[in-house]
UniProtKB/TrEMBL annotation:
All residue ranges annotated as the Methyltransferase domain in the record: 31-127
Pfam family, one: Methyltransf_25
Species the sequence originates in: Actinomadura miaoliensis
Protein name, per record: Methyltransferase domain-containing protein
SUPFAM superfamilies: S-adenosyl-L-methionine-dependent methyltransferases
Length: 259
């Protein structure tokens, strides 16, 4: 899912890192990606800040192996190192940094206010923290897919929201309490019609997650419609459709440690 997200939203990542660069003070020497996953953000940062050392931090050794492999494939492994650490335990031993990136990771931390204090202490004066969150999970389907009742995807998203998927606060008050000075906030709206090729597999993975996790939270006919969409042997199943579009939005908060 993380790799598919990076592929599907590659143009957005370029736009986002350009926006981040506009708010950095000079060229950062060291950049930390907190909760790096499979490295989509780390690699985008390495491409944007060509003189910086990138430190990818994640608690999963499997994820970090993926980051290393992706960095080698793109010829960026000489500037990227990985650190395995659980951010709920303590701040990782990475030293002072100029830029910290936390994409869809801060809301997973047990005590985000404590971690924001750690980030503030690790940033050099004038350094920047960027927090990114999905406003909602991405959408791919037309309202009427020709299977079951119209509005299937909307009902799936409503059920996922009731179950607490992707829940996160407005981070501005938390950042200000931690001593940061707000530099900027922006919502990035992403739309593509037709959707890029990777969106088909991304949508299939997301709907599969809905089907397994929301059983009992959706009506029986909606579950049947999901089964129909996810069946590879049906001509109107998701993997064979040509009417997919991409609709998503993400919000970024940029906050600076005062010089």
């Amino acid at each position: 899912m993380l790799d598919l997200d990076a592929q599907t939203f590659s143009a957005y990542l370029d736009e986002l890192t350009d926006w981040v660069q506009q708010h950095t003070s000079g060229a950062p020497r060291k950049v930390a990606d907190l909760g790096a996953g499979t490295g989509g953000g780390s690699l985008a940062l390495a491409r944007r800040f060509t003189a910086a050392e990138i430190v990818a931090v994640d608690q999963s050794a499997v994820m970090l192996d993926r980051v290393r492999a992706a960095a080698r494939a793109q010829g960026l492994d000489d500037r990227l190192r990985v650190v395995q650490a659980d951010l709920d335990d303590a701040w990782p031993p990475i030293g002072s940094v100029d830029l910290v990136w936390a994409a869809s990771s801060l809301h997973h931390v047990a005590d985000p206010d404590r971690m924001l204090g750690d980030v503030h202490a690790a940033l050099r004066p004038g350094g920047l923290l960027v927090v990114i969150e999905m406003d909602a999970l991405p959408r791919f389907l037309p309202d009427d897919i020709g299977i079951g009742r119209p509005g299937l995807e909307e009902r799936c998203h409503e059920a996922a929201a009731r179950a607490g998927w992707n829940a996160h606060p407005d981070w501005r008050p938390h950042l200000e309490r931690a001593g940061f000075e707000m530099a900027a906030q922006r919502t990035f709206v992403i739309e593509a019609s037709p959707a890029p090729p990777s969106a088909t597999r991304y949508g299939h993975a997301l709907l599969s997650g809905f089907r397994s996790a929301l059983d009992g939270h959706l009506a029986a006919d909606d579950l049947d419609a999901l089964d129909h969409l996810l069946a590879a042997d049906r001509p109107d199943a998701l993997l064979h459709r040509r009417d997919l579009t991409l609709r998503a939005s993400r919000t970024a908060w940029a906050a600076r440690r005062r010089p």
